[in-house]
Amino acid sequence: MAEGGAPAEHVVGYADILLDACATGRRLTRDELESRRAQGTRAAEAGLTLRGLVREQLAVAREIQPLLPARAFGPLLAAVEQAVDAFAEGYEQAQQQAVRQEEAARREFVDDLLYGGSDLGRLAERAERFGLRLSQAHAVAVADGPEPYGDGYPVARGIEQTVLARFGNRKILLTTKDGRLICVAPGDQPDVLEFFAKQAYAATDGGRVGIGRSHHGAGGVVHSYEEALNALDLAERMGLEGPVLYAADLLVYPVLTRDRQAMADLVESVLGPLHQARGGAQPLIDTLTAYFDSGCVATEAARRLSLSVRALTYRLERIHRLTGADPADPPHRYTLQTAVIGARLLGWPGAGDVR
């Protein structure tokens, strides 16, 4: 009998194969080995455990041993070894095929989920299989490191094991996409994404993590994913500091670039005169960036630029003379700071100049 009391189909004909082989001491034929492989495949597909299956095959060998002469003990062991090896081969091949099919199904689901190009109703049904309930709100975190990561990579596997060990009872999806690490978690559980971000930062040797806002439905996952990617892109273009970037904290930047031409006009109009400076506009743009990022505190800005306060003050005065806008004057400061942000977003000055 097989596990659960079902008929032991995987040992049907097995005793006859052993008896026939032992009668002459021959090796098992190709057809006999293939039949054992096929039985192993069917047993794996039925969800039976290999350990119990091998034990039952050894039990069959013990049952027929008294029917054989003493000299047949050696051939019996050889026949059992061949039969069990073929059976295990078929079993393992079936398991590997099942794993490949599961991985392919998971990858297809992840692609559809993050690209939003599939039927949403069908996508929601498939999501249950992978532990997500798309009727709820979800948020997405995306980790970018110094090298690409894929499913099964040590880094990805280690983070997945650590996160699931901590939050195994939560509805979480951990995967990779385009070389990045992805975590999809319920929107009301920000601690999951924060923990993921911490683990990803450590495992990727200082990589960055973008975290999108929480949104409802299957389309909400795509929206949050895109926000996380945009946060990483903004951090790269703007030189933003910090290992974790929240899309909710960066909403001003998409607003500023919504009308790209208007922003380009502002940058050229306000900062264009800086091209006249010795050394070009970039050093003065860097000066304004440090000055604004330091809360307009000259000593702190000078420290960030490795300048003396006097040298920094000279640069600010030079900016005032060239642009007509005083960085220390509140109304002028707002215009200059907006233009500097726009310059960083547009890659100005340089190849990204828009005239």
Structure in words:
- The chain has 355 residues and is α+β, with helices and mostly antiparallel strands.
- The protein folds into three domains: 3-99; 133-250, 2-Layer Sandwich (Alpha-Beta Plaits), CATH 3.30.70.270; 257-346, Orthogonal Bundle (Arc Repressor Mutant, subunit A).
- The chain is 60% helix and 8% strand.
- It has helices spanning 14-24, 30-45, 50-64, 73-115, 120-129, 154-167, 190-203, 217-238, 252-256, 260-271, 282-293, 298-305, 309-323, 330-346; strands spanning 137-144, 173-177, 180-186, 208-211, 215-216, 244-246.
- Strands 1, 2, 3, 4, 5 and 6 form a six-stranded mixed sheet that branches.
- The longest helix has 43 residues, at 73-115.
- It is elongated.
- The relative contact order is 0.07.
- It comes from Streptomyces lateritius.
- Residues 77-108 form a coiled coil.
- This is PucR family transcriptional regulator.
Keywords:
Arc Repressor Mutant, subunit A; 6 strands; six-stranded mixed sheet; alpha+beta; Alpha-Beta Plaits; 355 residues; 60% helix; CdaR_GGDEF
Q: What is the overall silhouette? A: elongated
DSSP strand (E) fraction? 5-15%
The stretches of 5 or more residues where confidence is low (pLDDT under 50) are 1-7
Helical amount: 55-70%
The CATH architecture of the largest domain is 2-Layer Sandwich
Q: Indicate the CATH topology of the largest domain.
A: Alpha-Beta Plaits
Give the class from helix and strand content and strand pairing.
alpha+beta
CATH class of the largest domain: Alpha Beta
Helix and strand pattern: HHHHHEHEEHEEHEHHHHHH
Biggest sheet overview: 6 strands, mixed
Total domains: 3
Estimate the mean pLDDT confidence.
87
How many distinct beta strands?
6
Radius of gyration: 33 Å
CATH level-four homologous superfamily name of the largest domain: Reverse transcriptase/Diguanylate cyclase domain
